[in-house]
Design goal:
258 residues; alpha+beta; SH3 type barrels; Photosynthetic Reaction Center, Chain H, domain 2; seven-stranded mixed sheet; six-stranded mixed sheet; 28% strand
Length: 258
């Protein structure tokens, strides 16, 4: 099902030992394929001033009414996870350390290996006897990936302040995005068109994204202003179901999946 990212923020995170460990603060997504790689959990209530990263495949079936999201990790496992400095970009080296700690397979370097390959009710936190990246890669590539300080993931909270540009000019800014909670992929960007189309919001499929200027906080799409102007307006009271998606796909001529 497609869900607005901002509606998920604030959900209570419950550990496998029924401990309330904090709240969902943010998501980090992969800049290459727009897949959610981590949820940022604020554990401030029991560990002052700290946030941690959890892979979305640690999520269990949520309680949508009470807004509780269980995870398959214990409070102790989460508490002892490698600390992260959110004032700095998340490096590949930190990701390697995190995956080693939780015994998660990596998603980079091996064609997108899913976390669920080793997910369990109580994942081990001991040493790992598998390579951190695909061992079919050349040694120098493996070492480069593990030691890289370059960031490959971005914050959804940060993304929702970015401008959006068509092929022939600005069309507003991103206010939210829709996430598929089955495969944890960003599918649509919700755009406030501002003074360009006053009082109107539109949905842009991420499949229409051409490139991103991360330093300039701007996303560029392969669409003209006219295409966006004539798109079906976003109605928050209407479900974003297959019918609505079909209308968007027919208008943009862009496949729903990237």
């Amino acid at each position: 099902m497609l869900r607005r990212a901002k509606e998920l923020l604030g959900y209570t995170i419950e550990a496998s030992d029924n401990e309330n460990i904090g709240s969902l603060h943010d998501f980090y997504f992969d800049v290459e394929d727009w897949e959610i790689r981590y949820a940022v959990i604020d554990i401030n209530a029991w560990f002052f001033g700290r946030r941690v990263l959890l892979a979305p495949d640690t999520f269990q079936k949520p309680d949508w009414e009470t807004k509780v999201q269980p995870v398959n990790l214990t409070r102790a496992q989460i508490k002892d996870s490698p600390p992260v400095d959110f004032d700095k970009p998340i490096s590949r080296q930190y990701e390697a350390d995190l995956h080693q700690y939780y015994n998660w397979p990596t998603y980079w370097g091996g064609g997108g290996i899913p976390y669920t390959a080793v997910a369990s009710a109580t994942p081990p936190v001991a040493s790992v006897d598998r390579p951190l990246v695909d061992d079919r890669l050349p040694t120098e590539v493996v070492e480069g990936l593990e030691q890289s300080e370059e960031t490959y993931i971005k914050s959804i909270r940060e993304l929702t302040n970015y401008g959006l540009a068509a092929t022939d000019g600005s069309i507003g800014h991103i206010t939210d995005c829709f996430i598929d909670d089955e495969n944890w992929t960003i599918r649509y960007l919700l755009i406030d068109t501002g003074h360009w189309l006053p009082g109107q919001q539109v949905l842009i499929p991420v499949a229409a994204v051409d490139n991103a200027d991360w330093a300039g906080a701007s996303i560029h799409v392969k669409l003209s202003q006219a295409q966006v102007k004539q798109s079906p307006p976003y109605d928050p009271n209407r479900a974003l179901d297959q019918t609505t998606e079909g209308e968007l796909q027919a208008h943009y001529g862009t496949p729903i999946d990237r």
